[in-house]
Structures are given as C-alpha cells and as structure tokens.
Design a protein that fits this description.
mainly alpha; Helix Hairpins; 84% helix
Length: 116
C-alpha cells in the first residue's frame, strides 16, 4: 500500500513558500545573494546586452539561488543526522558550498564573456 501523499497544487505551493520564508529568516548567504540580485537584475537590462545574453544572465543568477537553497537543505539534513564534527559531514557541507561557488563562477564568467 502506498502511503505517499497525493499532489496538491495549493498545498505544495504553500510548502514552497514556507521554505522561502524559512530561507529569508535563517539563511544569511541566501539573503546576501538575493540582495546582490536586486542590483544585478537591473544591470542586466541597463547594459546593452543581446536578448539571449540577458536570458543567460538571468538564468544563471536564478541558478545561484537554486543551488544555495539546495545547499542549505543539505546542510540542514547533515545537522539533523549529526552535530559531531565528522569527515563525511564536513565533506557534504563543503561539496554543497563548492556547488554554490561554481554557480557564482558561471554567472561571473558569463558577465565577463558578454562584456568583452
């Protein structure tokens, strides 16, 4: 017998908004990246970029936020499992941070390529 709850658009949207509220309350890196976005997004449209370049820059900026949220979720799960300093816990958190770093580097690389 499958005990998996059924999909409900409104309930699932509420869960997503709960997650966003939680991130805005507790995740400093997410808040900082969101604040940077307040300046980056208008700059994308102020600078004379082609439409495809604007889309790529917007998508890569959103990717940073997505990866940061996934990293925060990973860190929460690691903290739930253990508060001890364990090599695997450290490695998991470091790998999540590396994913965020690569997303940021991708975004910066696009800026440099499009400006040059």
């Amino acid at each position: 017998m499958n005990n998996k709850p059924k999909y409900h658009l409104f309930k699932n949207t509420k869960y997503a908004l709960d997650g966003l509220r939680h991130a805005l309350k507790t995740e400093n890196s997410f808040k900082l990246e969101l604040l940077c976005g307040v300046f980056i997004v208008p700059a994308i449209f102020i600078v004379n970029f082609e439409n495809y370049q604007q889309i790529a820059l917007l998508m890569s900026a959103i990717l940073i936020l997505i990866v940061e949220l996934l990293n925060s979720a990973l860190e929460n799960v690691v903290d739930l499992v253990t508060k001890d300093i364990h090599p695997l816990a450290k490695s998991s958190k470091d790998l999540g941070s590396t994913a965020v770093m690569f997303a940021i580097l991708l975004h910066l690389t696009l800026w440099v390529l499009f400006l040059v």
